[in-house]
Amino acid sequence: MEYCQKNLEKTAQRGEFTGQIADQRSLGSDHKLMIIGLTGRGAEIFRQAKAGQFVQISCGNITDGSGINKSGPTLLRRPFSMAGVRREFYRGGIGAKREDEILGGVQNDKGVDQNDKSGAQNNEGGDEIIYVEIIYRLVGPGTNWMAGRGIGEEINLLGPLGNGFTPPDDRKSKIILAGGGVGLPPLYFWADQLVEAGYENVVGFAGAQGKDLFAGELNKDDYDASEPLQSQMVIKQWARSGTCCIAATEDGSFGFTGSVVEALERFIDAHGDGPETYLYACGPYGMLKAAAEAAQRRKMVCQVCMEAYMACGIGVCQSCAVLVREKPSPASPHKGGQGTQYKLVCSNGPVFDAEEVVWELVKTRR
Amino acid sequence: MNVMDRTFEPDLTVDLGSVRLSNPVMTASGTCGYAFELGDFVDLNRLGGFITKSITLEERAGNIPPRTVETTGGLLNSIGLANVGLERFIQEKVPLLEKMTIPVFVNVAGKTIEEYEEVCRRLSEIAVIRGLELNVSCPNVKEGGISFGINASATGRLVGAVRKACPETLLIVKLTPNVTDITAPARAAVEAGADVLSLVNTFTGMAIDIETGKAVLGNGTGGLSGPAIKPLALYQVQRAYQEVASPEGIPIIGVGGIVCAEDAIEFIIAGAAAAAVGTAGMINPSCLVKIVEGIRQYLKRQEIKTIKELVGTLE
User: Fold this and answer.
1) Of A230, A352, B30, B39, which is the most exposed, with the fewest CB atoms less than 10 Å away?
2) Distance, in angstroms, between B69 CA and closest chain A CA?
């Protein structure tokens, strides 16, 4: 990669990078957290990543051009949102014990090489290591391959890709972050960035099917189960930015019993809403549609971070099309229907204004 | 074999008719966008040539999603030739292509012979476009919706009409592999005036969701690409080279599942003058230049002075 990257424009805000796994561990029964350390130009670029953007991870080497290892389990890369992009590396957990667990950049002993082996174009970023956090659910050959990788192994990725969330103009705006299933991670990163930018009024809603199925770490010890609709420091990944949240499970095994959107509607009924409330949602299609409808009823501004089956993730293959409303133009009749057009989740999104998406026509694969 | 000088640098240049490429590696249509979409990930100007995605007369929104699904070693797609259409291509994309320092070829698709003629005529007037690649796999709307490319005489009529519409333009014809005998459309294309053959396009296939009993792709069927098709594509290139291209002196662009230099070299030995990389470049853009380097290293190792010597050397 060295020779192909060096001539690229220095202004590029994305690229192909190889990092090393700084940590990997299980979260509940279905999810894993992988922390990837990037150095050099990778660190420089990812330092500026925005919540809602994603990376495309290579799960094997079938197309790496070397011709020596064609046994990768997947042909396509797999897209993942980022749960955080941080300068420090926390080994054990994130949250309560953080002071003890900061490994302090290049002094860490976990195998992230201080020398630039990242395959990045140059060393302009110095010795800085940027840690990209990925929380993923084990669903198929790609994620199973990832789960089998150990600390110190290399991960090749493209990123940061797509467009992130847009914050409200007013730092005093009420902000609701609602994540369902494996849609939670980008909202941890968004809370980090909102709080750092001075937004004061951020509350999270975390949904899962059951208590072992949260895409995050539950702070079960300090949780007051008698107040499920009271925001608490429930999820450690949100707690690091001081973001309280409400947890909801479909089976009632933890927190509010019901969907994450039901929980937030009950919360809003109790605390009030209004046009100054911003809702940022990420999760499966049904949840996003419900969030979009709730936002419309309550006149909240709503941005959704959408998921789609992708091949390239970089705007080339046109796989991840989603139907959105457009101003009618007789010059460009579209097959999708009157006044609609396809946009690409990978490059026009993955964040869209909820009112822009034609929800009834979003096609999903199971 | 003579002991070669250590500083020996093999000659990688390739001639596609009147257009010279600095090396045999090209992008395959549909996997690299209109111009610099891959430019943040790979220096495209280090390739031999660039082939755009398919351009049609009218803008096309594309097929109903899902549009792609991964299969074992392959990618099945039914994008539906989503593209901005001729006018917007000329206004918005050609200025970008003008910044490219390597030869640029535009892939053209259409529903009728007249559409192909019109699009090709307009594009042939643009200086930066060094040649046109005809995607003949599209349904011929005026003749029952059967793909032009699966019928030798329809292929010949289409190529002949475009040849007449743009007599000076380098004409590449990209053949569909969904035929019993690839040599028939290959011969028809050459007899009708094709300067270069490019093969293969994707193989028609499908995937079924066994839980719903429905096809996975919104369009039902799609075209298979990726390493899964490489042996099939290689065979068709070898056949077309032996039977048509070699006797007629027509260069072939080999396409189909190339992921590394070794794959590209196989196509060259089978008879391809150049090798286009599609699916792999979309997944790992940097592999495009690694393939160029890999070919260079191979020629050095084998002490082959020019890539042209290797073309069609299958024993």
Assistant:
1) A230
2) 8
